[in-house]
Predict the structure.
Amino acid sequence: MDKNQGIKGPSPLLLLGNILDIKKIESRARSLDDQPNVQLDHAWPLKAFPHIEQWRIEYGPVFMYSTGNIQFLCVTDVEMVKEINLCTSLSLGKPSFLSKNLGPLLGDGIPTSSGQLWDQHRKIIAPELYLDKVKGMVNLMVESTNLMIQSWEKQVQGKEGMEEIEVDQDLRSLSADIISRACFGSSYSQGEEIFSQFRTLQKVISKGKTFMGVPDLRLLPTKNNRDKWKLETKINLKILEVVKQFSAEARHEKDLLQMILEGAISNLVDHSGPSSGSSPNKFIVDNCKNIYYAGAIVDSDMLRSMKVLTMVIQETLRLYPPAVFVMREVI
C-alpha cells in the first residue's frame, strides 16, 4: 500500500520511522495543556495520542506511519473499521510485536496470541470465567469492597460528613485484593506482592514504548531493559513459588489458580510436542499475568439489574473507553 493507492502519511526516517515526529507532536500537545486557563475536557484519546489526530486531519481517515521498522496502516473511519471486523475472509491476528515488546508484561496469553495457541489458552481459561463460576467469587468481592468503603467512612468521620477522596489508588488496591484472593486463595498476600511488582513493570515498560519498533533495541542492556528483565524474573519466580506452595497444600475448594493449573497440565499433556507452543509453567505464568492485566471481573447480569449503576458505567465508558484503538496483523 502506497501513495499510488491513495494512502498517504508522514515520511519516515531510517531505523526510527516516525518516532521523532510523534515525540515532537506529543511535546507540543503537553505544552498547550500546561498553559493557564486551559479548560478541562473529556477528549483524552486526543491528548494521549495527539499524532493520530494530527495525521488524520493532514492525510485523511486512512494513513500510514511507522515506529522503527513496524509499519502501521491506521484506519480512523468507524464504518470502515466495522467492515474490516466483519470481513471473515481476512486472516487477521494479534501483532507479533506485542509478544516481543510486551512479553514481560503479557507473555503469550490470550491478549497477544493468535491461531492455535490462542484457541488453546481460551479453551482452558474462558470456562473458568463464565457467569456460574464468577458467582462463586461474589462473596470475596463484597468482602474486599466493604473494607474499602469502611476506610472511606473513617476518613469522612469528624469532617461533617464531607471529604474529597482520591479513589485512584484505592480502586487499584481493591482490584489487587480481589484478583489475589480469586487467583491465589489463601496465598493472596503473596498475590498482592506480585501485583505490586506487576504495576512497577508496567511503568518501566511504558518508559520505553516510544521507541518500540527500533530494531533490536529491546535486546540491548540499557538501564530500562535491565530493570524490565529483573522485574520479569522476579514476577515469574514468585508466581511459580506460589504454584509450588499451592500444589503442596490440601485443598477443599477450587480457586482460579487451581483451575488454571489443572487445565494447563491436562491440556498440555494432550497437546504435547513442539506444536503445543507453551510449557505448563509458562502457560500458568502467562495467564496469571493476563488476569492481573485485566484488572477486574464483571458480572454483567448483576450490572443489568442495577439501572443507575449501569447508566453511570456506560457513560463512563463512552467518555473514557478502555481501548482507543485495536491492532491487528495479517497472518
In short: Residues 272-276, 295-300 have pLDDT under 50 and may be disordered. Strands lie at 62-67, 70-75, 92-93, 329-330. The chain has 16 helices and four strands. The two ends are 17 Å apart (CA to CA).
